[in-house]
Amino acid sequence: MNKLINWLNKHVVPIAARIGSIRWLVALRDAFIAIMPAMMAGAISTVLNALIRDIPTQFGWTGFVNSMQWLIGINAVVWTGTLAILGLIFSFTFGYQLAVQYKVEPVTAGIVTLGTFIMSLPQNFTLTLKAGLAKGAVKTLTDAGAVVSGKDVSMWGFFNFGKFFGAYGFFTVMLMGAIAATIYIWLMKKHITIKMPDSVSPAVANAFTGIVPAAVALYAVGIINYLFTQFGTTVIEFIAKVLQEPLLGLSQGYGAVLLMTILVQVFWFFGIHGTNVLGPVLDSIWLTAQIANINAFSKGQDLPYL
After folding, report:
1. Is 225 in contact with 117 (CB distance < 8 Å)?
2. Where is the PTS EIIC type-3 domain (predicted)?
3. Which of 20-24, 194-198, 209-213, 241-245 has the highest mean pLDDT?
């Protein structure tokens, strides 16, 4: 037994310690921690609506539910500004925390990764109707910015709020945001920036310093997103289908849960904060599934991950 412990101390513990100190993983962990207040507020709104709407409805207490509509409405508004847009919030905190780790201007980095996330979203929708529309309906739609061609109605600038702004976007932020942040940080470190005189206030100087790195980073990911649209898809849908959904599916088995639980405890046994070391993995996979379940429950839908 002592030989095993000595071997683990010599070979495994140093590797775990190095993994726990990788700046990208630390930034990812801290980015998830930073969205915790929004998560908790959204979770409270979901639990309250379960207590005053869903459970009473199951027992037929419609009078009570009707009397609590004001609180149900408030909870829905809180959910809309928290769990429903958690991917959007995370897109900023991820870039911000990466910049903090590399000691460059963080607010601009957060804006870059936020813009990267928005770029990855589908911005058009096309709807084929069963019958043509009356002239009045066509005028109403065209005034709103839609294009009506026969039975087809299409519009640019439409974001599927309920689908893409929540946990669905986590993996896209981690991949595309990482590309944009890498470019931004590299250019900042190489001092490929606009330098302002010392007489300029720090706030203005920092803003100008980030112009060139931010523009290059955003154009780089913009090109990637444009190329995906030429193949009839978007970055977020591609990543979700190819990477996110398979990983989430694999993570729901007992084996995966047991393995991660054992690894966390093994690290703790050797005096290493197991949750911190494996936090990026735990949050990337299980937190994504957890938020997806909470959002589905809030909408009265079946839970996708059990």
Report:
1. no
2. 8-306
3. 209-213
